[in-house]
Amino acid sequence: MNNFRFFNPTEIIFGKDTQSVAGAETKKYGAKALLHYGGGSIKRSGLYGQIVDSLRESKVDFAELGGVEPNPRLSLVNEGVDLCRKEGIDFILAVGGGSVIDSAKAIAMGVPYDGDVWDFFIGRASQGNALPIGVVLTIPAAGSESSNGCVITDWENKNKLHFDFDKLRPRFAIMNPELTFTLPPYQTACGALDIMAHVMERYFTQTRNVELTDRLCEATLKTIIQNTPVVLRQPDNYDTRAEIMWAGTIANNDLLSTGRVGDWASHMIEHALSATNDVAHGAGLAIIFPAWMKHVYRQDLHRFTQFAVRVWNVEQRFDSPEQTALEGIDRLKSFSKSIGLPTSLKEIGITEKGFDNIVKKYKRSGDGTVGNFVKLTDEDINQILEIAK
Amino acid sequence: MNNFRFFNPTEIIFGKDTQSVAGAETKKYGAKALLHYGGGSIKRSGLYGQIVDSLRESKVDFAELGGVEPNPRLSLVNEGVDLCRKEGIDFILAVGGGSVIDSAKAIAMGVPYDGDVWDFFIGRASQGNALPIGVVLTIPAAGSESSNGCVITDWENKNKLHFDFDKLRPRFAIMNPELTFTLPPYQTACGALDIMAHVMERYFTQTRNVELTDRLCEATLKTIIQNTPVVLRQPDNYDTRAEIMWAGTIANNDLLSTGRVGDWASHMIEHALSATNDVAHGAGLAIIFPAWMKHVYRQDLHRFTQFAVRVWNVEQRFDSPEQTALEGIDRLKSFSKSIGLPTSLKEIGITEKGFDNIVKKYKRSGDGTVGNFVKLTDEDINQILEIAK
Predict the structure, then answer these.
(1) Is A1 a domain residue?
(2) Measured between alpha carbons, how far is A292 from A296 in angstroms, rounded to an integer?
(3) What does DSSP say about strands A4-6 and B11-14: parallel, antiparallel, or unpaired?
(4) Do B5 and A11 touch (CB under 8 A)?
């Protein structure tokens, strides 16, 4: 186990009707808020009205900025930064899923920064300050509600990049599973895969002696595997939605990374994929992750066998760890299929012609590689895309 | 799953040599610290000198108060409160295990309180303020390093009572597994049982649909079961000590209680037991918990079967859940025995004559009962003690 620091001060406010405290919670941190949201869905569902009422009841002054799209855009972030400065905003309330929260985080960093906020994403700036933010979560997937990360897309230049910064952890996250009842099946499934991917990025590590976090990872994965098919059949099953929602936070609040080095190559490849093709992140991960696994599993057969046996209940073939490991990877792929996700690039219309674009775009480490479980080169990425064909 | 709030802002600083940052961390929160510790062990081990050096390097002024005993005493707490007021202390640095931390927490509450700090424990006061505290942990067991609770004994009146208060969560917890290498086997085993008990108090619930937290509980229990025998054979096995230390925090930082009602009857009975007989808390729990289980398991055979199968790898007897459940309880008892703990009251010299004292002393809820999984009356407690004979 490696040395680590773990500090996650996001207050989780979880359960039925919790959106009613949005105003009171906001009041604790700011005098004037930016209410930030996506398309029209929170207006149609009535959530927008509830939040506005709650802010008014708590006498919180606010401005608003809607229109966040999936793969949130740098252009809107810049607009948000200008608006916040003009309006004297000192707190951002994000109402939505990961895209809205990430957009809010980028705005929060941009406001006090004396330059272009994109500097943080391209490695030109690393420290800074940020306005405090709060969240009313409507989509369990990204885990951004208590993570320190955000992912923004510069759509003009087709660049999707992430930035991690501890001051970006939201002060509070209001999580009412009822708000997720209306999520369409495809989006629910994409969220499930995104959550699983956050766990798996941490699970596949070369750090030795990480038993507790291994087991916590397995617990979180099993919960998603168990509950996702149920919620697809019963979209308004509160308890099942609640399991997925809370698991989504645990998957990405950094508890599961304590003392270990995560991989994150699949995420980087998927970001390159969805920057060049407007595919949902969870769907991209459903395609990339098993292909990555097939490319790297021989590097640590023991770990992939453990994954198969403990997470997927594969009966261990003691005479063939390799067959056991491969069966685990197949189960992941079958699971994705069973919940309606694509598992090949072909299904989303990407052929070999598109590979170059993806290989060009992924965010590399200093040495030009990506990933930690195995350091991958462009050649590896090409092979992974080939497997994912 | 119930509605919940989860807020745990303790910064965990985990790993080798981390005690060296004690001074720098203390400096963030206070101008003058109380260095609070137990007997002479931290002086013998050299830790005391390291902490003092670290405080001096960071130019933190400090007073000190040693002498905390197991089952920490109200009398020393009162002494600490007076000392802090006299010296103008604004931060308490607890160096030790649960007893030292709990003593520090009680002092932290007592300083700003305009009355007897015992008021909080007997229900005469419930709100208040507290000095900030920090921890250098030397014994993984109580989980007090990031919990909101503390347990203090009024030794004159043989009363051991607990109080929970969110402002008591330490600001930071420095956790170096190397500091636990010298823990004697008996204390290591007591710690393991205490950690398991914190998980089991949360695990045995009547709240339905708590799959994620069930699985996180099972993950934590399995980690302790797997690592404790190893550490008893190899006391300076860093990674094994690390697993136990981190599991001890997770077990009691309230993550595992999110959305569910815990039981806590076994803890209340054990507190009464160790208030009247100076037995180690973990040893008391090793005796009480299986007896409690045998008394209540029929109330939810499903849950006890799950415990047996998932935590203890008992092969499920589909034709007899009861036998499966009982086998799980037996495995817990065998485990305690195997790590050198007593599993009957007789072994610690308590006979039926002592039962009355225990029954008189346990802390009751408003309705006079104790526990939530099953509400227990005095008659139940007598039966549990009878089983534990």
Answers:
(1) no
(2) 6
(3) antiparallel
(4) yes
A235/A269 same-domain check: yes
Whether B275 and B158 have beta carbons less than 8 Å apart is answered as yes
User: Could you tell me if B248 and B335 lie in one domain?
Assistant: yes
Q: Is B288 found in the same domain as B144?
A: no
For A32, the token pair is: 């004037």
Which residue in A1, A146, A196 has the most chain B C-beta atoms within 10 A of its own C-beta, making it the best mutation to test that interface? A1
Q: Residue B141, class by beta-carbon neighbours within 10 Å (0-12 exposed, 13-18 middle, 19+ buried)?
A: buried
Residues B104 and B213 both lie in one domain: no
The total of structural domains in chain A comes to 2
Q: Which of A134, A163, A179 is the last residue of a domain?
A: A179
Q: Where does residue B303 rank: exposed (0-12), middle (13-18), buried (19+ CB within 10 A)?
A: middle
Q: Which CATH number covers residue B291?
A: 1.20.1090.10
pLDDT tier at B363, thresholds 50, 70, 90: confident
Q: How far is A226 from chain B (nearest CA, A)?
A: 9
DSSP bridge partners of B13: A5, B174
Whether residues A1 and B255 touch (CB distance < 8 A) is answered with no
Q: How many helices (H) and strands (E) does chain B have?
A: 16, 9
Average pLDDT of chain B is 96
**Alpha-carbon torsion, ordered A322, A327, A329, A334, to 10 deg:** 170
Taken in order B324, B327, B331, B332, the sign of the CA dihedral is positive
Q: What is the pTM of this model?
A: 0.97
- Run of H or E residues at B37: strand B32-37
Quote the CA–CA distance of A372 and B54 in Å, as a whole number.
35
Report how far residue A351's alpha carbon sits from residue A185's, in angstroms, rounded to the nearest whole number. 26
Q: Which helix (H) or strand (E) holds B238?
A: helix B238-250
- Cβ of B52: how many Cβ atoms within 10 Å? 16
Give the distance from residue A247's alpha carbon to the nearest chain B alpha carbon, in angstroms: 7
> What Rg value do the Cα atoms of chain A yield, rounded?
20
Tell me how far apart the alpha carbons of residues A327 and A312 are, in angstroms, rounded to a whole number.
9
Considering the domain boundaries, does residue A62 fall inside one?
yes
Domain of residue A210: give its range: 183-388
**Residue A153 bridge partners (DSSP):** A73, A160
- CA-CA distance, B258 to B210, in Å (whole number)? 9
Measure the CA–CA gap between B97 and B196, rounded to whole angstroms.
17
Task: Please check whether residue A179 is in contact with residue A138, taking contact to mean a CB–CB distance below 8 angstroms.
Answer: yes
| Closest chain B C-alpha to A187 CA, distance in angstroms | 21
Q: What is the pLDDT of residue B55?
A: 98
| Cα–Cα distance for residue pair B318/B326, rounded to 1 Å | 13
Q: In what order do the strands lie in the sheet with B32-37?
A: A4-6, B11-14, B172-175, B133-137, B91-96, B32-37, B61-65
Q: What is the pLDDT of residue B40?
A: 85
What DSSP line would sit under A93-125, residue for residue?
Answer: EEEESHHHHHHHHHHHHHTT-SS-THHHHTTS-
**Cβ(B152)–Cβ(B74) below 8 Å:** yes
What is the ipTM, given to two decimal places? 0.96
Residues 235-254 of B with CB under 8 A from A: 239-240, 242-243, 246-247, 250
Integer distance in angstroms from the first to the last C-alpha of chain B?
A: 37
In B, minimum Cα distance to A172 occurs at B7
**CB atoms A242 and B209 under 8 Å:** yes
Query: Taking phi first (over 0 means left), then psi (-120 to 50 degrees means alpha), and beta for anything else, what does residue B349 get?
Result: left
- Tokens standing for residue B386: 């009878």
Distance of CA B357 to the CA centre of its chain: 23
Q: Which helix (H) or strand (E) holds A268?
A: helix A265-276
Do A332 and A188 fall into the same domain?
yes
| pLDDT tens-place string over residues A288-310 | 999 999 999 999 999 999 999 99
